[in-house]
Amino acid sequence: MWETKIIEIRELVKESIKGLSYDKLNQKPSPGEWSIAQIVLHLAGAETRFLTLALDSAESGGGRSHSDVDLSVFDDSSQKLIAPIEPSTDPQTMDDLMNALDESRSVTTHFLEKYTKESLNRRSMNHHRFGDMPIWQVLELLGKHEQRHLVQMEDVKKRIR
Fold it and tell me: CB–CB of 133/125 below 8 Å?
């Protein structure tokens, strides 16, 4: 299910930023918040980190996981989460952002070409926030993470106009 949802969500992310000017992409709604460009860089960086961790765990055999982890923390956008790595504050062009999204998606594509849910058969990876989790659940993690930030991007767009 999440194998197809992540494709749809990524298209929504790309559609959301299309047509935004360089200034709007890089404008912060307030000093302590991220610009849309920073959110996009965060999404690309997180995808690369999540899927590299999944690939490394799959290659090494990973541990065994008996149940999915609870990812509902992503469902409540009013709950502030702290990112372990801050995105660059350097201004970005639309091309920079689209390239970052495409590059990070290539890691996910590689994962999907190499593995199936059945081939990973409840093997686990260790995530910094969720601990041991099924490797295949990384796709749900990725999707929920991008959905959450898509809502954030729409909010930022309203506030910078």
Answer: yes
Torsion of CA 77, 125, 50, 143, to 10 degrees: -50
Helix (H) or strand (E) holding 127: strand 123-127
Binned at pLDDT 50, 70 and 90, residue 155 comes out as very high
Q: Find out whether 39 and 86 touch, Cβ atoms under 8 Å.
A: no
Q: For residue 132, give every residue at least 6 positions away whose Cβ sits within 8 Å of its Cβ, in sequence order, or none.
A: 63, 65, 69, 124, 125, 126
Structure-block tokens of residue 141: 């993690």
**Torsion of the alpha carbons at 50, 52, 54 and 58, rounded to the nearest 10:** 180
pLDDT digits (tens, 9 = 90+) for 113-151: 999 999 998 899 999 999 999 999 999 999 999 999 999
CA quadruple 139, 1, 98, 24: dihedral positive or negative?
negative
Record the pTM: 0.95
